[in-house]
């Protein structure tokens, strides 16, 4: 829509950028890994690295 004023495009871009940034930050800090699952993953990956030819 080229009839929109440039200041409106700028405000929409700023609002979208802030929303995207807040969404990513909230998702990043809401993730909490379980310590037992990390040990199991390390155990599986180390045992799968042993080749039995």
UniProtKB/TrEMBL annotation:
Keyword presence, Transferase: no
InterPro entries in UniProt: ATP8_metazoa
Keywords recorded for this protein, A-Z: CF(0), Hydrogen ion transport, Ion transport, Membrane, Mitochondrion, Transmembrane, Transmembrane helix, Transport
Subunit text: F-type ATPases have 2 components, CF(1) - the catalytic core - and CF(0) - the membrane proton channel.
Subcellular locations according to the entry: Mitochondrion membrane
Similarity annotation: Belongs to the ATPase protein 8 family.
Topology in the lipid bilayer: Single-pass membrane protein
TM helices/strands, residue ranges: 6-29
Protein name: ATP synthase complex subunit 8
A molecular function (GO) term: proton transmembrane transporter activity
Biological processes annotated in GO: proton motive force-driven ATP synthesis
Annotated Gene Ontology cellular component terms: mitochondrial membrane; proton-transporting ATP synthase complex
Main location: mitochondrion
């Amino acid at each position: 829509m080229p009839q929109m004023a440039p200041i409106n495009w700028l405000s929409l871009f700023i609002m979208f950028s802030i929303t995207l940034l807040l969404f990513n930050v909230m998702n990043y800090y809401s993730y909490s890994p379980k310590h037992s699952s990390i040990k199991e993953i390390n155990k599986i990956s180390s045992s799968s690295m042993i080749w039995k030819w």
